[in-house]
Amino acid sequence: MNVPVFLEFVEIKTKLASLFPFVLGTLFTLYHFGSINALNTILFFIAMVVFDMATTAINNTMDYVKAKNLVYRDEENILGKAGISVKQAATIIVSMIAFAALLGLILAARTNLLLLVIGALCFAIGILYTFGPFPISRMPLGEVASGLTMGFGIFFIAVFVNVPAGTLASLLLKWPNFTLAGNIANLLVILLQSAPLVFTIANIMLANNICDHETDISNHRYTLTFYIGKPVAVRLYAWLYYGAFAATTISVLFGIYPVWMLFIWAIFPIIQRNINRFKAKQDKATTFNLAIKNLILYHGLEIILLIVSLILK
Predict the structure, then answer these.
(1) What domains can be seen in the chain, in order of their start residue?
(2) pLDDT attached to residue 197
(3) Residues 213, 217, 221, 225: what is their CA dihedral angle, to the nearest 10 degrees?
(4) End-to-end CA distance of the chain
(5) How far apart (Å, rounded) are the C-alpha atoms in residues 77 and 133?
(6) Rounded distance between C-alpha atoms, residue 1 and residue 83, angstroms
(7) Pair 35, 162: CB distance under 8 Å
(8) Given CA atoms 41, 43, 44, 45 in this order, what sign does their dihedral have?
(9) Segment among 68-72, 74-78, 122-126 with least mean pLDDT
(10) Where would you find the membrane-spanning parts of this chain (predicted)?
(11) Is the dihedral of CA 185, 186, 191, 196 positive or negative?
(12) Across the strands, what pairs with 300?
C-alpha cells in the first residue's frame, strides 16, 4: 500500500473534525485556566490523530465487508478500488490502535488514572462505531456518538492533560477502595464550551446520512435519518447550527468567554445561506461538503477570536 492509497484509506482530509476540538480545547485551557503542558499536548495530539485514522479505516473496511451493493463495494469503496485485502487492512488498523493505546497509557501515567477510563471508553466507542454485530454507525446513534466522542471527548481530554490534577476530575485507587472527585462548575464549563463542536461534528454525520439515505437502505444501514425521515433530519441539521450560536452566546453572558466571542454572529448569514442550500438539495457530490465548510468557518473564526482574547488578556 503506497502513501496516497493509505491516506485515502484513512481519509486524512476528514481529520479537521478532530483537529478543531484539540486546538480549541488547548486554547481554552490557556485562556480560562492559564495552564499548558507541552509534552502532554503533543502526545495527545499524536494519539488522537492516529486513533481517528484507525476508526476511519475500520469504517471503510466494514463497509466493504458488509456491502450489499456490489457496485459500491468494487467501484466506490477504497478497498475495492485499490485492491486492498481485508487482512492487510486489519493489520494496519491493529497497528494504529496499538500505537495510540501505548501513547494513551503514557498520558494516563503522566496525569491521572481517570484518563485511562475515559480513553478506554473513547476507544470502545470508536471501534464499535462500525465494528461488531451491531455497529453504532448502522443505528440511530451515529450522530450522538460522533458528536460527543469527538466534540466533547477530545475537547475535554485536551483540557484534562493540560491542567493540574483535580481541576476537572480525578480517580484515586487504593485497593480495595477508589475515590472519584471532581469540580462540577469546571465540568459544566467544559460541557458548555464543547457544545458547538458537538453540534457541528454531529451535523457532518447527519448530512452524510441524509445524502446517503437511499444507498444506506440498500446496504441495510438504518441511521437516524431512516427513523425520523429526511424532512425532520434536514430541520434538525439547521437547529444544530442554531444551537452552536446559542451555546457561544450563553458562554459570553455567563462571563466564561469574553465579549469578543459575540463576533461569531458575523458569519451567521453565511451559515444560514449554506443551511438553505442544503435544505434545497441534499446531494453527496454538491451539498454535503457544506457541513464541512460550516465547521471550518465557525470554529476557524472561534479560534481567531480566542487567540485575540488571549492577546488582549
Answers:
(1) 3-312 (1.10.600)
(2) 96
(3) 40
(4) 49
(5) 20
(6) 9
(7) yes
(8) positive
(9) 68-72
(10) 12-31, 38-58, 89-108, 113-132, 152-173, 185-206, 239-271, 292-312
(11) positive
(12) none
Least confident of 117-131, 192-206, 266-280: 117-131
Phi, then psi, of 113 in degrees rounded to 5: -60, -25
CB-side exposure of 66: number of CA atoms within 13 Å? 20
| DSSP secondary structure string for all residues of 186-239 | HHHHHHHHHHHHHHHHHHHHHHHHHHTHHHHHHTT---HHHHH-HHHHHHHHHH
Residue 301 in contact with residue 266, Cβ under 8 Å? yes
Please name which of 223, 25, 66 lies closest in space to residue 143, comparing C-alpha atoms: 223
Predicted TM-score (pTM) of the model is 0.90
Q: Please give the average per-residue pLDDT across 273-301, as a whole number.
A: 93
Residue 18 has pLDDT above 70, yes or no: yes
- C-alpha cell at position 58: 475500520
Q: Report pLDDT for 70.
A: 60
Q: CB of 39 within 8 A of CB of 25?
A: no
Q: Which three cell numbers stand for residue 189?
A: 464549563
Q: Is 296:208 a contact under the CB 8 Å cutoff?
A: no
Q: Which amino acid type is present at position 252?
A: V
DSSP string, 67-119: -S-HHIIIIISHHHHHT--HHHHHHHHHHHHHHHHHHHHHHHHHS-HHHHHHH
The grid coordinates listed for 218 are 440498500
Q: Quick one: cell of 213? A: 439515505
**pLDDT computed for residue 115 by the predictor:** 95
DSSP assignment, residue 153? I
- With b meaning 16 or more CB within 10 Å and e meaning fewer, what string describes 226-247? beeeeeebbebbbebbebbbeb
